[in-house]
Specification:
By secondary structure, the chain is an alpha/beta fold. It folds into 2 domains: 3-292, Mur-like, catalytic domain (UDP-N-acetylmuramoyl-L-alanine:D-glutamate ligase), CATH 3.40.1190; 300-430, Protein-Tyrosine Phosphatase, Chain A (Alpha-Beta Complex), CATH 3.90.190. The protein contains 15 helices and 17 strands. It has helices at residues 3-12, 23-32, 50-63, 92-111, 119-133, 171-174, 178-186, 202-214, 258-276, 283-292, 316-329, 347-354, 374-385, 395-400, 417-430, and strands spanning 41-45, 68-71, 83-85, 88-89, 138-142, 160-163, 194-197, 218-221, 227-232, 237-241, 250-253, 300-304, 307-311, 335-340, 360-363, 389-391, 410-415. The strands form 3 sheets. Strands 4-3-2-5-1-6-7-8 form an 8-stranded mixed beta sheet, sandwiched between helices. The longest helix has 20 residues, at 92-111. It is globular, with a radius of gyration of 21 Å.
Length: 433
Amino acid sequence: MNVSEAITYIEATHKFGTRLGLESMSLLLNEMGNPQDKLKFIHVAGTNGKGSTASMISGILKTAGYKTGLFTSPFLEAFNERIQLNSEPIEDDGLVAATVFVKEHIEVLMAQGEPHPTEFEMVTAVGLQYFYEKQVDLVVLEVGLGGRLDATNIIKDPLAVVIMSISMDHTDYLGTTLGEIAYEKASIIKEGSDVVVYPQAPEAMKVILDFAKSKNASVILVNPDDISIVDFNTKHQTLKYLGTTLPLKEFHLKLLGNHQSLNCLTALEVISLLISKGFHIDGSHIEEALSQVVFPGRFEIFLESPVVLIDGAHNSNGIQAFVQNMNQYFPKKKVNLYFGMLEDKDIEESLSYLIPIAATIHTLTPNSDRAMPAEEMATLIHNEYKKSVDFYDNMDAAVRSIDLNRTKEVNVFVGSLYMIGEARTLIRKNLVK
């Protein structure tokens, strides 16, 4: 099996759909020898901010000298991005070896009449096996969907549990109220866990705190007053840490936007917790890591004149944060909007934030069977907002439509991660010299 065959094999299991629950995952990992029981984890759940925060935690740990695994989803450009070692995507040989190992054990289970694991269960198993083989010191493990029945919740005793911003998303799986969704996310909290909680809406916060109390967990609430933005530009922002538990004052954060300052503070609370558990991390490690950390596809700027950027805001809360960033970084600039979203997202609310900042509007179809077709999106926007909208059948044509001579304009690709990954590849290929 080569790497292309390994990825094809994993992705072919998409046909088994989404199956929430831990029974299949438990059977598979037990057959594999339970590699997860030999690893240490920081488990990260939430609706928005999981990936950025996980990347910051991972980067700091790596800089401090710890061999660090990072598991995130989905990928933008290459499958290997989902499983990382010291901030580098899994190498092809490692991916193949772990996939072959998992495949062999799946075949044993299927011979016993067990159902085939889903795609996400397989990817999680491959990641856990790879991290075990590499003998990592810690794994920063991002939840896939929800928490309670997510395949990653097979782990038993995380060093830290992190609950990021919770909002209405995946209501067909997780519930139709904020409280129901918060319960699903909070259910990664284990007995006696140490939990770091991002600021939440009251309904979500009550559920999280009640669940934590039922598990005798210790809770650290992230206090927005513990960080402030001193300065910002399109390269980085300067933040000031006002908390008391870390040897840190002013520092640069490469990730842009107000929301990233709070994500960063959440990561810092996790690092403070790890230091209290005996991990050796000092202020210089934190400063170096945060000045370099990247999380592709999150307010990522490729050109400055004209501005070309992408942002994977794929629900209304993410879109709202994106619009705030646009008003902060590019006030009064002409904005050319390239937009695509999945049909099961809150499209109309997202458009209510986006359309007022857009001078021109172009729609695209994300590469997903759940995507709203570009033409249908264009019709919706035209009918609702009486705006002129054009749509593109392919990303290449959209990227090539950018007029590089209009140097004072801002061109943004925003929406589904299944869209901006393709945009990122073509922007770097065709526009970035």
